[in-house]
């Protein structure tokens, strides 16, 4: 059933767990997440990221995601991940998304505040939830940092307090050492950033992006300190890719595409169930 993200995150805060935000980059990844949620009996957030527009555009993904959520046996929030502009967020809200993220993390601070507050006002009028981002996880984290240290990009607690108050956001994505995509070295998280931002924002639900590739202990520690939503995609997609590779090796001739899709869904859904188990601390 289609639900609001706000109540989902409030329940997670009460229960001391986190909800997974799983990306819909293809019909198969969305179906895998729904299947995992139903098998585990756990709520989740089905989200569409702007970077996946090239594989499955929002115009097609949106109606599909809403249909999957409405038909699911478990609570599902439908969310725009990394909305790139105010109109982009409004488009998702007009489609019926129950939540949007406006990502103004690379904008000058005041512009991020202004645009996020504008999205939040409209979203709240429509009964939808808003996530925003403060601090950033630039791609140069993966390579040369130049003159910067990772800490230079971390979310600053006093800025988060001001941001939360002036924008009225319902959840905040923060930077404390995770990165999107594949980790080249073992991630080192600054968990105290979570605690400090949480305290400064009166317990605002905090979001961890780049949820792939962390140890079970990293997840547990981050959740214990206040992370209530974990965005996860890359390593699940790799699990799907590996299953397809194995299938192609086993059946090099005459393999039909629908069997490839089924193998990918099976593998991605098993991987998402593994993550859900950790987030629920089961
Ligand atoms: P990963 O692809 O690194 O798991 O991150 C997903 C994410 O943060 C989507 O916003």
What can you tell me about this protein's structure?
By secondary structure, the chain is an alpha/beta fold. It has a single domain (5-279), classed as Aldolase class I (TIM Barrel), CATH 3.20.20. It contains ten helices and eight strands. The chain has an eight-stranded parallel β-barrel with strand order 1-2-3-4-5-6-7-8, surrounded by ten helices. Helix 5 (109-125) links the parallel strand 4 (99-102) and strand 5. Helix 2 (27-40) crosses helix 10 and helix 6 crosses helix 7 (191-200). The two termini are 23 Å apart. 1,3-dihydroxyacetonephosphate binds next to strand 3 and strand 8.
Q: What are the salient characteristics of this protein?
A:
alpha/beta; about 280 residues; about 15% strand; binds 1,3-dihydroxyacetonephosphate; TIM Barrel; 10 helices
Topology diagram in text:
Layout: H1 5-15, E1 19-23, H2 27-40, E2 44-49, H3 58-71, E3 76-83, H4 86-95, E4 99-102, H5 109-125, E5 129-134, H6 157-167, E6 171-174, H7 191-200, E7 206-208, H8 216-225, E8 227-232, H9 234-250, H10 257-279
Parallel strand pairs: 1-2, 1-8, 2-3, 3-4, 4-5, 5-6, 6-7, 7-8
Helix pairs in contact: 2-3, 2-10, 4-5, 6-7, 9-10
């Amino acid at each position: 059933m289609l639900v609001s993200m706000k109540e989902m995150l409030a329940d997670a805060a009460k229960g001391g767990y986190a909800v997974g935000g799983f990306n819909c980059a293809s019909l198969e990844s969305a179906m895998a997440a729904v299947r995992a949620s139903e098998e585990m009996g756990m709520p989740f957030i089905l989200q569409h990221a702007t970077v996946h527009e090239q594989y499955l555009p929002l115009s097609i993904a949106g109606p599909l995601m809403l249909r999957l959520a409405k038909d699911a046996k478990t609570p599902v929030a439908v969310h725009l991940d990394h909305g790139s502009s105010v109109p982009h967020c409004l488009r998702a809200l007009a489609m019926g998304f129950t939540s949007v993220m406006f990502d103004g993390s690379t904008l000058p601070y005041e512009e991020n505040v202004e645009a996020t507050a504008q999205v939040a006002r409209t979203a709240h009028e429509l009964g939808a939830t808003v996530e925003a981002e403060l601090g950033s996880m630039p791609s140069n984290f993966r390579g040369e940092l130049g003159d910067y240290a990772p800490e230079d990009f971390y979310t600053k607690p006093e800025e988060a307090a001001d941001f939360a108050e002036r924008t009225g956001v319902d959840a905040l994505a923060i930077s404390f050492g995770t990165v999107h995509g594949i980790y080249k070295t073992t991630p080192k998280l600054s968990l105290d950033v979570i605690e400090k931002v949480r305290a400064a924002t009166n317990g605002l639900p905090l979001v961890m992006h780049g949820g792939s590739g962390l140890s079970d202990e990293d997840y547990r520690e981050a959740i214990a300190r206040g992370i209530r939503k974990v965005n996860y995609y890359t390593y699940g997609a790799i699990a799907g890719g590996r299953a397809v590779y194995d299938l192609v090796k086993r059946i090099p001739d005459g393999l039909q595409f629908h069997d490839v899709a089924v193998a990918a869904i099976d593998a991605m859904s098993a991987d998402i169930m593994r993550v859900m188990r950790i987030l629920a601390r089961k």
